Queue: 3 jobs
Job 1
Amino acid sequence: MTAELAPIKHPFKRWAKFLLPIVISTGILVYLFYNYRIEAIWEKVDELSIFTVLVALGLLLGNLALGIGRLKYLLSYFGARDISTFACIRAFVAGLLSSIFILNLVGNVVGRFALLRRQGVSVATVTALVFTEKLLLAISGLALLVFGWVEVFGSRQLYTALAEASLPEAVLAMCLVTAASLAIFRWTREQQLLRRMVSRTALSRIGAMLALTLAAQILMALTYAIIAERIIGPSAPSLTTLFAAGAIVSFAAAMPLSVNGWGIRELTSIFVLGKLGVPAPEAVGTSVTLGVLATVSVLISSVFLAKPLATSALPAKSAEDSKDQESVLTVAKVQSRTTNSIVLLVAGPLTVLFLFFSMHIPFEGTVVSLNLGDPMALMGLALFLLTWTTSKKLPAEVPRFFLYWMLALTLLLIGGFLNGAARIGVTDWALNNRLIGWSVILGYVSIGAMCVSTLGLHSLRRLAEVIIVGGAMITLFDLAHRQFEIASGSFEFIASNFEGFVKNRNAFALQLLTGLVALLAYSVPFKKKLPPILLSFLLGSIMLGIWRSYSLSGLACMVILLAIALLLRLLPWKMFGLAVFWAGTVIGLVSIFSYISNVSGVDRLPFNHTPDADLIVGGSTSERLLTIRVGLEMWMANPIFGEGLGSFANRHFGENGKQLVIHSVPIWLLAEFGLVGLAIALSLPLAVAFKYIRSYTPNRAPAFMLTLGLLLLFAMFGLVHDIAYQRLFWLLAGACAAASVKVGYSDKQR
């Protein structure tokens, strides 16, 4: 049943969830001003003339005007064509004002929805248009970023970064997975929606929005260049070079990492202008001036909020009597639910697809990791919270004990963080990796739960299909790409382990195992829709990927899962035999091809061997055993509540003092949260398993089998690996929780 909530009497409690980015931005600014002397920074800013300030303000106001035009196009694109220009101005300004105090991504949704809800626009529509706007900003920003990068750093480093990040291959693999999913499982509704999204009219609107976005970012980079030229003085680089630097700084500031770009903008400015020989005070002064003037331009435009706007633009014409008014509201609610369904129809599979791709970009001796699914998770969390607070009920039907479990885990992390802070102080790993990272995990849970609760079991099956096809296609793509490199003589040996696009063989093995669990859970309905040879092809490809990852944990889990599936007759022996034959055939052909390439072209392969000859195993067994042994010692010292979050990572047991984590989820829980933490974490999984065991007629519904399979996989793999924050698991956890409410219904998928 849907959990009813009492009205919120204290709005501050709702805003307190978003105060942490303010602390991050303020902390960075205080650090910069302390280290680079605020007096020196102010001296540079004070040299700006009134004319320069006015020109910069004019450009920034022009940037806002282009943004308002883009919002108008976005509303039209999502079906809200009756919203007036004045209402668009107010909504755009409200979003910017919210972004001054809240994380940029969430602030835009909160501010715009506060104004557009009065015009009959649903929270799902606002969330979708904000995400689309950020996507347009990313596309146009990347174009300017490439120009800026080449101008400042040169083309060689750009090519190196793109090659090592495997960006072209990732884009190609994404298209392959999308096309295969649409074709294999015949996504009728999704194909119709895709045709509508890329129709001639839709594409013309997208082109106009992209042009407006690019023009707005050009104005922002030009503003940065003008301010920098005046602050730096006669020794300033050319205006073109400063414009390129501004493009890089603007792109970094637009990342959803801080409040309105504060802090990130200053750090990036120091780094980029430092490469051009500009001292840090001038760099900080330029970025701070730009940030202040941008805020001033928003405050100036906030005068449009002074005049109240009457509620209008509901999907039906207003009537004189109450009966017609009720009809108008009914139409609005129906359209809101429809929009919500369309948004989640796209958001769920897209988030799963993005989870297969983590970008690891080498930069100045370090590696910047970007998970493409995290922005989707943040948008999902914003959609969940806004729907919750405005409708006074949860936007997803999930069992109450699942809600209590998630609440208990959240309180456990907060308590563990406070315990660790009292013992060893606040550590970066505990604060950023675990505590802040948990908010992202909650976003994934929200997306999964809302998708299944809104769209039914059809949505859960769609998520499973993307996982299955993603694992199979990425395995085959990786295999084909390696053979192509060997044949062309450009193969650079790194490791024979398959890592997919997550750059970690164990993480990739876990993704493939999740696909295996999904395929086994849905094997019965799949057999009614797909030919057996196709299912064997998908199963064999996933098995091939797990084998080529050379993850011992992955191989062991695969054997156990296949044995259980054969025992429970979820997997027919014939399908299993064909899958093994397909995987074995591919392995044999690849081995023959590698041998021929090695014999006929010795010079083309480094070290005079095939890629399989060197098996790179990440992390030694002794290191893993060390983490488990020390973790147990920590638990024995504090058995009830543990030593607190971050206590183990703070010890730096790795080589050369690097930070390690405990390679076992239960041991990590015991060491840092004690028996209390382990009991809370195991309460729901044990309850689900006990319910299944004691039932006289076991539930064979795919949704329930998927739940059990995931719990079993997590229990096995988590014994020897730190997978507590695996995003794909938590997204499916939310989806399965919502599906448990609907398991009693028919499992029709179309």
Job 2
Amino acid sequence: MIVSEQALEASNIPIGVLGVDLIDGNNEVKHIRDAVKVIGSSFTRLLDKDKIQNPPRRCNDTAKWDSGDLVYDTLLETSLVGETGHVSFNERGDRLNPLYDIKSIDHRRIPVSVGQYGHRDKDQEFFMMDENLTWPGNTRSKPKGEQISRNLTIVTLDEKPFVQVIPMPKDGVCRPVAPAEHAFPCRNQDRVQCCIGYCMEMLAKIAEDVQFNVTVHLSKDRKYGSFENHNGSKRKFWNGMMGELMRGEANLIVAPLTINPERANDIDFTKPFKYQGLNILVKKNQRESSLASFLQPFEDTLWILVGLSVHVVALVLYLLDRFSPFGRFKLAKSEDTEEDALNLSSAMWFSWGVLLNSGIGEGTPRSFSARVLGMVWAGFAMIIVASYTANLAAFLVLDRPAALISGIDDPRLRNPNDQFKYATVKDSAVEMYFKRQVELSTMYRNMDKQKTYHTAEEAIEDIRSGDLHAFIWDSPRLEHEAARFCDLTTAGDLFGRSGLGIGLPKNSPWTHEVSMAVLNMHESGFMEQLDNKFILVDSESSCPESNSAPATLGLTNMAGVFMMVAGGIVAGVMLIFIEIAYKRHRGLKEKELELARNAADRWRGNIEKRKKLRETWQYLHALRMDEKGDQAEDK
């Protein structure tokens, strides 16, 4: 280990550490003398060739000194041997070829000189080292050097959108598919495919910055890795990508590998390249019927009460107007007739008209008491209609299908039953999370009894088919799937927050460099670009409910309204036939009554005629008798 000059002065520095110290670095007098020699030599050569202007007297006027660049270039060209060694400069003005004293920390923790390194003149380099050194570990034996290979083997697995496996073209050359810009050949058992995605773009950038070559292959058992018993023995081993890394079959794990305590005990992790949490993927709970969507703003009980109120108010209006002494008024055109009070049919028409905000041309209450009730009913109707309109907008325009569960604290997860099925991927960090959390032990035991999923794709397919009710997994993947498929959604808030990192063997010489490359990518905004390109690319989904603008109502939402109108038309047609039949029946009765009335009138007329004839006959008979009596008297 070679440290800086300042580190050599630390009190807790280990024994055997090497460091370099500039010879005479603390001797200011020698450095000042060398500096004066450099300036004198430069101006001597400069004044022999050119004439220079007087320098400015104030520092703010240095930009106006035309000879400044000439003096600077001459100083850089100066080369001499001074009291501190060979003095020369590079293009930036830094000193070249300084003379260093090599120091080592002995058993007393004091830095002692063990050699020198530098240049005695411009071209002659020398190195001198004491063979009898104290090396780290307080030993005299020289440690063996380690040769680091720059051909690294990378293990990963298929996990969209971080890693996506695509078929190898026929010409055997992997080409990226948009939005990816890099594609790596990756061996999958006995065949070679191409790998693209978030992690492959990150791997290409790291390989370019750290300068190493990569060979990518997919995990043999398609697992992230868990610590389990092997072949029924009592000894436990890591499987999946973790096992391949620890067995030396890979140098790096570049995949969405969650950083957790179990893994960190056996491998090294870089700084997290992405922070994420766990979420729950469920199928959307679509509404069973849309024909009665316009009835959803109110509960069935409220609809019944509103309908009952209409008829009760109509009945009370009729009774108030009928029995009130002010229910009748003289008509303006006639003093002999009176306008009838509000009848029951007109009261019903008024009550419905106020509720539905339709014009009331006739049939309004006449009495003051009935009109007070009418005003109260109008206020009630205004509130009901406004509430219905607001809730109708919420239900139809901004309607979002509710998720099947509310989140990780949902009772169906905390108190599981055989009807509700949920799961995660076997041998994954999510499964380890449920093992580690005591309050989630019941959930873990229930998941362990159900169907085992080895990949996220299997679980997502079962979610879509309805065989699985909830899938617990990393939030970036679930949000990606929810944006792709309109029948899926995420439920509740994130939980179990963690970071995703690159895995390396313990004490790997690449850990620091790869970790620094990850930090540099965060600072430069490269990771944010990858998020926008792969994770957030489907955030503006084509699903109607994902848009912030209100959805357009269609026939599906308002079919019930049109059916109600059609029902009204059918009811009107049926009623008109009933009215016609009733009118005919009533007309026949009126005709019979009229015939009977006419017959009675004719009978009465006949009786009157007979009566008149009888009276006439009696009168004539009386006249004849009178005439006969007169004739008898005359004789």
Job 3
Amino acid sequence: MLLEAVYHRPKLNWSYAYDSETIHLRLRAKKDDLTEVYAFAGDKYIWNQSKELIPMSKFASDDLFDYWECAIKPAYRRLKYGFLLKSDDDEIWMTENDFSKERPPVPDRLFEYPFINPADVFKVPAWVKDTVFYQIFPERFANGNPDNDPAGVLPWGGKPERDNFFGGDLQGVIDHLDHLSELGITGIYFTPLFEATTNHKYDTADYMKIDPHFGDTEMVKKLVQACHERGIRVLFDAVFNHSGKTFAPFVDVLEKGEQSRYKDWFSVREFPLEVNDGVPTYDTFSFEPLMPKLNTDNPEVREYLLNVAEFWIKEVGIDGWRLDVADEVDHQFWRDFRKTVKAANPDAYILGEIWHESSPWLQGDQFDAVMNYPFTDAVLDYVVRGTLDAKGFANAIGRQLSRYPQQASEVAFNLLDSHDTPRLLTLCEGDKNKMKLAALFQFTYGGTPCIYYGDEIGLDGEQDPDCRKCMEWNPDKQDRDLFEFYRKLISVRKDLSVLRTGSITFLHAEEGGSKLAYERRLGKESVLVLLNNYDAGQTLEVPAAGQAWHDAMSGDSYETDNGKLAVKLPAYGYAVLTQSQ
């Protein structure tokens, strides 16, 4: 055994309460090094009567490590534990301090989970697991009320630029809710709706006011109510890292300088506020002088922003917040934010925009989830860019699963493109078969999937601003085949609960190849998913119980032969197989 590779520590994603009764233990080891792992666990106060060996299973792997896991329901909500590691005939006991050939005679030197205190359990909103999100960039979705158009509005469908407007608004969203219901959408994530000067609205002028080019508070109430009547949840976007140049406190500081009562609302390095060689004398988003960074260490700023967070939940009934540039805001503010939001609605979804490994924010005291860009990169590297083979992709997904507590992974926000990236179809160089294959994995994986508006009808676009085109509402210009694919995919995900909450095990992941097969399992229910990421047909053979299998996507049927299932897939083909009854 390579003991240097073995790793465990209490709390974080290694030892945590999954619910009020269950503790999950995890252990890392060198890939393919251990053949068996057991948790040696019991209650420290009645050790001799309670100690037992609990088998652990390998729940994930990456290119270097295996990750083992077990779930324990201790009778008294506390646990002393170590590990028994086996590699064929060799075995080692692991305690908190060392490795030993001898079983620990007493529990004193073992790891400890002191107690499952309800306040420490990371609780996430259960509804998110069953939700399919749809991201709307309001200015470009639909113009439902020309009377509130901004000055200089352009005809719908023109070339998007960073500073032009086409008149999209909230009435336009209401007018097209039938489109979302037909598709099967059950959640909308809106980019910012608050008053601002830009078309993207990430430069907030007034956090308590809907941008008049979109509508007003009564209109957004009407929209939220209409969504809720259709079973669609609503997620608002907020920028609490920075404001816009027309935010009243910043205007005051610009005018009065050090004499402004709001001078400490921002992170000013020196007065006067000016820009020298492209660098402002105050902190901003990037080096953008129009987006001054808010000082969330200031009690008045915290109170103002927390009131904003509470107001829109209570006043309008939104179902959660997506938080822009979340990793540049201090952790204590997010802890206060969570308390405020969950007090207003315990079932609200708190989603942070973080583009990298995010475990410091996913311990139950800040966010429920983050925008899962490591997932995005893995799928695109495998299907689109071709920089990962099937084995490398499986390893990337395994690594991602190992990073967070299970409940965080269950509500991860899984996207393939957004207003900040080139569109999926463009990344696929117009190849809709590749696009479908990427989406197929997205919708047969855990977490909550999100479609960027227009992807479902073939909207393309390069990097911002081109990815922010006007939605195409002319049926003759929509790709209805692509729409039907997404509609079917969403329907299959809704019909098969195992695709939403089951475990994932990779059955076949070729090293140097493109064929991938994995099982999603929930209790006795099993679904096999097969992918052919290649420009020619290939046959995948996987172990399978039972006699007959049915492809939920195509309707085709297959039979096993000596415990094996062989399925021929076309170029960039796929199958979602369930056992025939």
